[in-house]
Structures are given as structure tokens and as C-alpha cells.
Amino acid sequence: MPECHGFLSRFPGKAVLRESLKERLLGENRLDLYSCELPGHKLRVLIVDDEPSVCETLSMVSKAAGMAPRSFLSPHAALAHQEEEGYSLAFLDVNLPEMSGLELAQALKQAGLVRDVVFMSGHGTFEDLVQAIKLGAYDYLRKPFSVSEVRLL
Predict the structure, then answer these.
(1) What global pTM score does this model have?
(2) What is the C-alpha to C-alpha distance for residues 143 and 66, in angstroms, rounded to an integer?
(3) For residues 54-69, b (16+ Cβ closer than 10 Å) or e, as one string?
(4) Which of 60, 133, 55, 121 is nearest to 94 (CA)?
(5) What does the alpha-carbon distance between residue 76 and residue 72 come to, in Å, rounded to a whole number?
(6) Dihedral of CA 145/148/149/151: which sign?
(7) Is the peptide bond before 2 cis (omega within 30 degrees of 0)?
(8) Phi-psi region for residue 70, left (φ > 0), alpha (ψ -120 to 50) or beta?
(9) With a cut of 50, which residues of the chain have pLDDT below it?
């Protein structure tokens, strides 16, 4: 599996985390990691960022990978549009205007609406990183990021 260039990739254990996730999802027969599809369904991805260009880019990359993205420009819009199935993966900006992406992740996880979260930030602090880890972050992308960095996740 290619090395991830996200923020958390600097920490030892990243490969173990990735393999653990892969084993968990394959063990539950939920995910074919190579086609990115649930049996009979596309992998659902939530994207929440107040920058339209980020939402558009992540949606484009997700669609190209065979996933079903849903993007929102505000955390309240994402929470108001809850769906029964939830999402396998969420890309959340840490610095959102109405509430932080960290708070949004906590709300989504408590409601059982998202499985794994990739946090994104152009101005992330060490405290944000620690909180992201405590919330079980799958990865942490620094903005601006390239399309190839997203594909490596």
C-alpha cells in the first residue's frame, strides 16, 4: 500500500492503523478496498468544508474512485441532512465558521453517522491534532493538499 503524505503519516504506527482498518472492514465483509464499494452499494463519503473548491475537488476525486460523495459548505447543513445509512468516511475541515470540524466529528460519531474521519486544515494547531487523534482520526490533511495526496488515503 502506498505511503500516505497526510499529517498523521509522520507518526509511527500509521501503517498499523491502516492495516487494522483494512482488516476490520474486510473482516466485516463491508468493504472491497480496491473497488471502494460495499456489497451492492458505493462507499458513501461526507465532505464538509466552507471552501467550495475543496468540496468540488474532493467530490471529483471520490467519484473518480467509484465512491458516492455528499458535500456541504456548513456543519449545520450536514447535520440537518442526516441520512439513515450514514457514511463510511468523512472529510471535515477543522476550522468551520459555525462549529469546529472536531465538534462536528464528535456529533456525527455519537449519532453513528460516520465511521472514519479525515480532518483537513490550513491552520491546524498541535491541540487540534491531539483532539483529532482522541476522536480516532484516520488521517489529517494539511491544506492546500494535492489530488495525489487524497488518492493515497
Answers:
(1) 0.72
(2) 24
(3) bbebbbebbeebebbb
(4) 121
(5) 9
(6) positive
(7) no
(8) beta
(9) 1-18, 21-22, 25-38
